C-alpha cells in the first residue's frame, strides 16, 4: 500500500500526506490460492478504497472467492482491458508447475504472464501503470525482463518499502507497541 500511495502521488503530482487509494485499480496476477501476499493485499487495498482484480486460472483461485470483495479475471488481457493502474505479478513456485494447477509453463506465460507484448501495450498507453512484484521473480515466466527493468517498474521500491514496514512493525512489537521512543520529543 505504501508503494502504491507513492506511485499515485507521483502520477497526480501531489504529496502522499493524506492521500488515499480511493479509485486505484490493482490487478494481482498469479497463484492467488497459495499466496499470502495476494490475500493480505486484497484486504488492505480494499480497506483503503482501491478496486482489486485477481487474475489467475480457476485452479489457482480459492474455492470461496465469490464471497471476497474482488473482481475475477481468467486471463490478463481481459483485466488490462478493464482498466488497471497497477499490475502486481506473483511468483509461480516450481512445485506448482508439476502439480497440474496449469498445463505448462508456456501456457501459463501465454495467458497470465506479463509478456513483452502485453508490456508493450501497457507501455504504449498514455495511462501510467505501475508494475509490481513482491519477489523473487521468475523472469520469462510470470514477468518479462522488459517489464521488470522498465521505468514503470516499482519492484525495487516495493521491496525496500516492505523491509521498512516490517522493521517498524517489529520495533513496535518489541517495545510493547509504544511509539514514544520512535518519535523523539513525543
TrEMBL record:
Name of the featured protein: Aspartate carbamoyltransferase
GO biological process: amino acid metabolic process
Xref: InterPro entries: Asp/Orn_carbamoylTrfase_sf, Asp_carbamoyltransf_Asp/Orn-bd
Record bears the keyword Transferase: yes
PANTHER family linked to this entry: ASPARTATE CARBAMOYLTRANSFERASE (PTHR45753:SF6), ORNITHINE CARBAMOYLTRANSFERASE, MITOCHONDRIAL (PTHR45753)
Gene Ontology annotations for the cellular component aspect, listed alphabetically: cytosol
Presence of the UniProt keyword Transferase in the record: yes
Organism of this sequence: Rothia nasimurium
Gene Ontology MF: a single term: amino acid binding
Keywords: Transferase
Database matches in Pfam families: OTCace
Domain Aspartate/ornithine carbamoyltransferase Asp/Orn-binding residue range list: 22-173
Domain of life (superkingdom): Bacteria
Amino acid at each position: 500500500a505504501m508503494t502504491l500511495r507513492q506511485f499515485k502521488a507521483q502520477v497526480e503530482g501531489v504529496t502522499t500526506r493524506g492521500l488515499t487509494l480511493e479509485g486505484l485499480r490493482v490487478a494481482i496476477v498469479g497463484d492467488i490460492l497459495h499466496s499470502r501476499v495476494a490475500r493480505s493485499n486484497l484486504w488492505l487495498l480494499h480497506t483503503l478504497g482501491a478496486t482489486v482484480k485477481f487474475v489467475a486460472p480457476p485452479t489457482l483461485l480459492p474455492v470461496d472467492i465469490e464471497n471476497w470483495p474482488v473482481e475475477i479475471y481468467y486471463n490478463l488481457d481481459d483485466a488490462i482491458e478493464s482498466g488497471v493502474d497497477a499490475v502486481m505479478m506473483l511468483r509461480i513456485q516450481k512445485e506448482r508447475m508439476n502439480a497440474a494447477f496449469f498445463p505448462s509453463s508456456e501456457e501459463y506465460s501465454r495467458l497470465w504472464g506479463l509478456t513483452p507484448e502485453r508490456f508493450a501495450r501497457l507501455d504504449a498507453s498514455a495511462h501510467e501503470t505501475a508494475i509490481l512484484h513482491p519477489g523473487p521473480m521468475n523472469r520469462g515466466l510470470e514477468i518479462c525482463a522488459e517489464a521488470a527493468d522498465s521505468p514503470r517498474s516499482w519492484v525495487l521500491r516495493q521491496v525496500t518499502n516492505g523491509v521498512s514496514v516490517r522493521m517498524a512493525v517489529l520495533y513496535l512489537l518489541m517495545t510493547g507497541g509504544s511509539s514514544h521512543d520512535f518519535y523523539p520529543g513525543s
